[in-house]
Amino acid sequence: MKAKPTSYHGLLYRILLLSLFLLAFFLYTFPLSLVQYWDACVYLQNAEVIMGNEEGWNELSFRPPLISLYIAFLNLFWHSPYMAQLGVGFISLLGSIPLYLLLKQHFNKTIAFLGFIMFSFSPTLLLSARGILTDNMALSLFLFHVFFIDSALSSHGKKKHILNMLSALFLVLSVLTKFTYAFGAFFLLIFLIFKKEKPSTYLELIFFSLLFISPYLFWNLAEFGNPVYTFLAGNYVVGQSPGSPFSFYFYNFNYLAELPILIGIILFFIYLSNKESRSYLGSSKQIVYSTLIWSILLFLVLSFMSHKEIRYLFPVFSGAIITSCAGYFMLLKSLKNNTRAKKNRLILNSFFVFFLLFYAVSTLIIINTNHYSIINNYPVDFIEIAEWLSAREDDYPIYAMTHYPMLNFYSNKTIFPAVPQRIDAVLNCSSSSFELFNINSTYGYFVSFPRGYDEYTRVESALFETCNIFKEIYRANVSDVYGIVYFFNLSDSS
């Protein structure tokens, strides 16, 4: 019996989606590398502490725990940064699935396909994904939350309770991956208001959310005496990092609203101004308006925060892509209702060619720039110094003003952060002066990276000029980038 054409086309379409998913997974994870940087090494080190392999410096007291727990689980199968990179990359890409299903449910397969491409092949998301970081992974988990709560509020009976539970679970998982997603509770509130839900739904979601997050709150209480200690500490630590102007995200909005996404957002607001085209959204306006309002509010909240990085803005991607897809859907509806069919087909075909070319060219540029291979390891100063420190048999305390998470992970020794309590501290060779740098020993190793962060390099230079007790004993032999190990002993000062 011959297969129906529709079935054949459906099979080809599913094969296309799977092929694109596998291609995106390759781009999200490869090349694999043993060389990881600041935050990634923190999560890798936290995983070692969770597994009981290390008792040294860790940042579990102010970092979200889920990514480190996940890495510790992955280490049971293959104890390597490679496995962490593969595992985190896979979860980071999984968000394309609930996004596709959400858009298909509200619009159609064409729009769902566009959203899938926007997420899976976004240059901004791709370039961030290969690091073992929380940002892509948390966004992916949050998209599961959005899909499940949207499905729940369109369901009834037992199915609705199960979907409410799943939405609460994934909201908590996103929060435990990146604390910023605690603001996801406001999206939930906005969406519930739009849907005009009964108080029982609010109570059920609160109950499930507290149920899933309670083990972590009890751990906080037992470990630090405050159930929300890590949330407060995390916010404080980020606040101590170098600041950026309020306008930082406005100037860098192009990283979030890539050209196809931006065009869709512009189309959305153009059609929104017309009463007839506004009706194209139907009941889908509730999820579109909710994610849009939440994203705008979160964008403003993040702009008021002192320390800013492009990846901190990733939660807003959810609203940007959904709004953009709504704009394209309204365009398709408008053209469909127009009588000039031939001209409309030309417009649509031109648009799809442009859309696919943008992401194809972006992907090729990323591949060419990153010289893709399966493995890409290269010499770096902090790994060479970490190996030198690891080989030392003495137990002298080790301090570093920068790069200490990398030194800590790769050396398997405790590296104490010598972060100055005051940048303008008066420096002299005394214990009280050293305490300003959190150096609580009169002797030990001090690792310096002269080409590190400018403000810390300036402080280090002043320290070395003021105190002549720092004696160079090792220099990393890496071209163009270098780190230096000094030995210091306060008793040598006079």
Strand content: under 5%
Total beta strand runs: 5
- Low-confidence runs of at least 5 consecutive residues: none
| Strand order of the biggest β-sheet | 2-1-3-5-4
The domain tally reads 2
**Rg to the nearest angstrom?**
26 Å
Secondary-structure element sequence?
HHHHHHHHHHHHHHHHHHHHEHEHEHEE
Q: Give the biggest sheet.
A: 5 strands, mixed
The number of helical elements comes to: 23
- Whole-number mean pLDDT: 85
Q: Structural class, judged by helices and strands?
A: mainly alpha
- Give helix % range: 55-70%
Q: What form results from the Cα inertia axes?
A: elongated
Amino-to-carboxy terminus distance? 96 Å
Question: Could you characterize what this model shows?
Answer:
It is a single chain. This protein is mainly alpha-helical and 494 residues long. It folds into 2 domains: 27-370, no CATH class; 381-492, no CATH class. Helix content is 64%, strand content 5%. It is built from 23 helices and 5 strands. It has helices at residues 5-29, 38-51, 66-75, 81-94, 96-106, 109-120, 123-129, 135-152, 157-177, 184-195, 199-224, 229-240, 248-251, 253-256, 259-272, 275-278, 285-304, 316-336, 341-370, 381-391, 404-411, 431-435, 454-466; strands at residues 398-400, 415-417, 443-448, 471-475, 484-489. Strands 2-1-3-5-4 form a 5-stranded mixed beta sheet, with helices on one face. Helix 21 links the parallel strand 1 (398-400) and strand 2 (415-417). The longest helix has 30 residues, at 341-370. The relative contact order is 0.09. The mean pLDDT is 85.
